[in-house]
Task: structure prediction
Amino acid sequence: MNGMASSLHDESQQMSLRERKKRLAQATIEEAALRLFQQQGYERTSIQDIAEAVMMSPRTFFRYFASKEEVLFGPMHAALSDGLRFLQHTAPTESPHAALRATFEYLASRYQQQRASFLLRYQVAVQTPSIASVYLYALMETEPALCDALCSRLESAPNRHEIRFLVAIYMTALRVALEEWLEQEARGDLVSLLHGYLDAFSSLPHHA
Result:
């Protein structure tokens, strides 16, 4: 291995190590924060409390999270970002319905893979009036980006108003399925539950 290749290899290894350390620190902070949220309530838990629980300063906490809201909502935003990438690069494009159904099934599977994490965060959220309504409705923040991604992938010129409406329908189906699933303590198959709601829309025109 020549000097340049060796240097690039070492840099890659160091970057990987830094990323692993960062993720470990984030996981440690999340675990402590969620435990405190459960024990003393979300609103009564401060950044100082979380930092002290993991033996770091508040300043160090902010290297990993911008706020305690990010600790609580981070996995949801990560799942939605993954769903957007799936729509942009993987979902079928023969019709808007095919693309959206595949994307939202993928999103449901992502939630199901992390059921314990999402259930715990949901339980914290519903016990906190200031964020209870935000937890599930935060899903809707992704709708414009999903609409843009779908419009850009369709081969024929889309009717943007119809696409926007379809995205909202599919997002509503996911939100309702998620709420029912989480209220049942994440038992059962979320993907199958979502299928039931999506099938209710099967009679809608597929000409968008």
Summary: The first helix runs from residue 3 to 40. Residues 66-208 form a domain with the Tetracycline Repressor; domain 2 fold (CATH 1.10.357.10). The chain has a mean pLDDT of 87.
